[in-house]
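Slack export, channel: ligand-projects

TW: morning all. Re-posting the request from yesterday since it got buried. We need the structure predicted with the small molecule present, not the apo form. The ligand is adenosine-5'-triphosphate; the SMILES is in the block with the sequence. No rush, but it would help planning for next week.
GE: picking it up
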Amino acid sequence: MTAERRQRRLIAVGSGKGGVGKSTLTANLAIALARLGHKVGLVDADIYGPSQPVILGNQGKKPIARDEKLVPVESEFGIPVLSMGHLVEPGRALAWRGPMAGNALTQLIDAHWGDVDTLLVDLPPGTGDVQLTMLQRFKPMGAVLVSTPQDLALIDAARAGQLFDQAEVPVIGLVENMAGYVCPHCGELSDPFGRGGVETAAERLELPFLGRIPLDLAIREGSDRGQPPACGTGALAAPFHDIAAKVDAWIGAQS
Ligand SMILES: Nc1ncnc2c1ncn2[C@@H]1O[C@H](COP(=O)(O)OP(=O)(O)OP(=O)(O)O)[C@@H](O)[C@H]1O
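GE: finished. pasting the full token output, ligand included:
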């Protein structure tokens, strides 16, 4: 069991704020890394607001337990997933205190992941109990931080970065999400949340900038119907594959 754990690398995907696209990025990164040859699994550690079963289209499936450990749920993209969303009824609120949430996270990570070599962990937003448990019990190999470009989100993203720093988890880099909206009617490009702020913040924090994902209705629609854009090949898939290539290069440089 120890050997299995040692070989498997954990990559955390975090954000300072909620709703900035962390779950969207994690699912698409998982698909893109799998295309690059990694055996990828995904833990939805967003215990209070799990969204991966919807994004990866396996909502309603239940994991079974074997030898008191969970067996991850398959998705059509070849990515096994474990999420609280598979364990509680959809729409049901969880009112757990930190230690319970931490224990739930442990069960999701310490599961029968089989030949998975790269486990992506979609963290809840912020810097609370679940994140601390994750960093203390299962030190990730690295972390990807996602933020929208506006100042408030960036301040929180920097705070999330500090959490990883303190835990000596290297930040692989920063991703800017929801920059650049092309109006479907007139084609005009606008930036509701600003643009370029994450890249500037990355420079200031001396962290790599991994890429920029546009604000696009098709990304939201694809996520809602369990078809993440990275499973296609079009322009919307490209930024996710570019980001995955950088993460892949970073992983390669560690070994
Ligand atoms: N680039 C994008 N373009 C359009 N919609 C997006 C984009 N990124 C994310 N979304 C949508 O924004 C919403 C929030 O995204 P997501 O759930 O990935 O964020 P999150 O940071 O994981 O949120 P939470 O705080 O709930 O964990 C979702 O409806 C998602 O489909």
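GE: first-pass observations. The CA atoms of residues 82 and 204 lie 36 Å apart. The two ends are 21 Å apart (CA to CA).
TW: perfect, thank you
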